[in-house]
Amino acid sequence: MSDLILHHYPTSPFAEKVRLILGHKQLAWKSVFIPMIMPKPDLTALTGGYRKTPVLQIGADIYCDTALICDVLEQLAPMSTLYPDAVNGAARIVTQWADTALFTAAMAYNFQPAGVAQVFAGAPAEGVQAFVADRTAMRSGAARMSSTDAAATYKSYLRRIANMLHGQDFVLGAQPCVADFAAYHPLWFTQERTPALAGILDATPEVKTWMARMKSIGHGTPGKCNAEEALQVAHSSTPVSVQGEVFQDEHGIALGSQVVIAADNFGLEPTEGELVAATRTRYTLRRTDDRAGTVHVHFPRVGFTLKKVSP
Ligand SMILES: N[C@@H](CCC(=O)N[C@@H](CS)C(=O)NCC(=O)O)C(=O)O
Q1: Which of 97, 206, 219, 290 could cross-link to 23 by cystine, CB 3.0-4.6 Å?
Q2: How much is the average pLDDT of 208-222?
């Protein structure tokens, strides 16, 4: 199998979710740092437009969104499962809540002025302005939660996580599952990136003890790689065949159609390509790029829209 290449940057919470899962599953992986804001020409050469962080590359297969990346890693390395049978549905539901509601509240809290000062300490003012403009554009005009509303919401959410940890080491049992990694990453940002604001965690000591457990999982040992090498890997690889994948048609769009796929909220940059697979849980687009060659770009169904390109 080709190397696992994670396209990410150190301060990305969603990337931290995946880095820890790679550590949990003791997988070897290669690390490519991408910019925090647009433009990201090396990344979008692979994805065709999707710009969020992180993205997983395996040869000429490009996996977007951590929900799908978790499924792919589970398939590759089923040991230390992310989805214990007894709690599979609950784990996915808690994960979806953590990646949306918890993440939104925590990041609105983290990005109040004292947090911004820590995150951007030493950065030039233009860099901060460019970041704020990029994220404002990603929200397509939607207002960010005020930091006071965010603080109240975040505190309630922390109490709920503490309640889940009552009498057990992880949120749904004795071992970490996908929900632990999802609930951890926004809190990790508070603790590690905006420590001036981390006092909010003090009211829930169970959460702090669990965070220490999660942190100790580590990231395994990432190898170095750069964007050019990653593009070369894609160019010289052939995407895994999707022949035989069961087609589930919900949209009246036939395989072979030219389509666009985009996230259904926050960061709507679309990817266009030929729909070559649409299973129960994911879409696959085939596209060709001068630098990346022919790649398959994969998206989860949940959280993404599929539309036919009008001829
Ligand atoms: N649903 C996505 C969310 C990813 C996401 O929002 N990541 C943030 C970084 S933590 C992002 O993309 N920010 C803008 C960027 O990096 O360009 C996933 O699970 O991968």
Answers
A1: 219
A2: 97
Show the tokens assigned to 70.
Answer: 């978790």
Q: Whose CA is nearest to atom 17 of ligand 1?
A: 52
**Mind listing the pLDDT tens digit for each residue in 282-301?**
999 999 999 999 999 999 99
Pocket test for ligand 1, best of 7, 53, 64, 185 (most atoms within 8 A of CB): 53
Instruction: Name the band, by pLDDT with cuts 50, 70 and 90, for residue 142.
Output: confident
Which ligand 1 atom lies nearest to the CA of residue 67?
A: 19
Which residue carries 């799908």 as its tokens? 68
Residue 310 has a pLDDT of: 87
CA of 166 to the centre of ligand 1 (A): 30
Instruction: Read off the pLDDT band of 258 (50, 70, 90).
Output: very high
| Euclidean distance between CA atoms 190 and 103, whole angstroms | 11
SS3 237: coil
Locate 215 and state its tokens: 């942190």
Residue 140, pLDDT above cutoff 90 = no
Q: Which domains are assigned to the chain?
A: 4-79+222-308 (3.40.30.110), 87-215 (1.20.1050.10)
Q: For residues 193 and 196, what is the distance between their CA atoms, to the nearest angstrom? A: 9
Is the CB of residue 273 below 6 angstroms from any atom belonging to ligand 1? no
Pocket flag, ligand 1, residue 103 (CB < 6 Å): no
DSSP labels for 229-290?
HHHHHHHTS-PPP-TTPPP--SSS--TT-EEEEEESSS----EEEEEEEE-SSEEEEEEEET
Is the whole-model pTM more than 0.90?
yes
Residue in the block written with tokens 């925090």:
36
